[in-house]
Write a structure and sequence with these properties.
The protein is mostly beta strands and 118 residues long. The protein is 0% helix and 42% strand.
Length: 118
């Protein structure tokens, strides 16, 4: 799965965020590089998930990399294996708040490209 671009991220302070993506699948995390000072980051980052079943959950969190404090949560996309579509499919997903923090204000979309190994 490739995270291609995230659009219209919400600023948490005065400056544009330094976003990165953290992917959670089957108890393991993967992380993209941090992109500097942008509300429309073009990640083009590949995440690899092995043996994904239709009901398995993949969560893609996006954070602002803060140097002096805890990283700020900017939104997430929750997918099941069934949501991953056909090989080569490119699809936009709305960023959502964390499940236990429904009142969080998040904004933006994440464009994913699905790639399946043979």
């Amino acid at each position: 799965m490739k995270v291609k671009i995230v659009r219209r991220l919400k600023k948490k302070g005065l400056l544009d965020p330094d976003p990165y993506v953290k992917a959670l699948y089957n108890g393991s995390y993967q992380r993209s590089t941090t992109l500097k000072s942008t509300t429309d980051p073009k990640f083009e980052h590949d995440f690899e998930f092995l043996n994904v079943d239709k009901i398995d959950l993949i969560t893609l969190h996006i954070y602002d990399d803060c140097q002096l404090s805890k990283d700020d949560f900017l939104g997430e996309v929750r997918l099941t294996g069934d949501d991953c579509g056909k090989n080569g499919l490119v699809k936009d997903f709305e960023l959502k708040p964390r499940e236990k923090h429904r009142a969080e204000k998040v904004h933006g979309t994440m464009t994913l490209e699905f790639k399946h190994s043979k």
